[in-house]
């Protein structure tokens, strides 16, 4: 159960990071509210995951999932340029997250 919540909270990290950008410095209400709600939920999931998974592994998985999804979303929405090298590097991050799960 801890792994499932950790993965979901990593996904929420991508949501709050994107909402933070959309809030334009907390000047827009809806993205700001989405940021606050998903930030709290993401941290709660990370905290629960850390209760059963070693802190280094839990944090690396959480950050990895959030970073990959945030970067992928930015490329899909054309806020960042998609290049072959960026995609390869993101796939490398995914491989590292999977590897951490495999050895845990």
UniProtKB/TrEMBL annotation:
This is Multidrug efflux SMR transporter. Belongs to the drug/metabolite transporter (DMT) superfamily. Small multidrug resistance (SMR) (TC 2.A.7.1) family. It comes from the Bacteria. The chain crosses the membrane at residues 33-50, 57-76, 82-103. The keyword Membrane applies. It is a multi-pass membrane protein. SUPFAM superfamilies: Multidrug resistance efflux transporter EmrE. InterPro entries: EmrE-like, Small_drug/metabolite_transptr, Small_multidrug_res. It is found in: Cell membrane. It holds the Pfam family Multi_Drug_Res. Coiled coil: none annotated.
């Amino acid at each position: 159960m801890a792994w499932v919540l950790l993965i979901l909270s990593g996904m929420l990290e991508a949501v709050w990071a994107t909402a933070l950008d959309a809030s334009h410095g907390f000047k827009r209400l809806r993205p700001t509210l989405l940021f606050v709600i998903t930030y709290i939920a993401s941290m709660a999931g990370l905290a629960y995951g850390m209760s059963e998974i070693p802190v280094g592994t839990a944090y690396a998985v959480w950050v990895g999932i959030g970073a990959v999804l945030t970067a992928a979303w930015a490329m899909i929405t054309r806020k960042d340029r998609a290049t072959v090298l960026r995609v390869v590097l993101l796939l490398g991050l995914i491989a590292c997250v999977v590897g951490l799960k495999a050895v845990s």
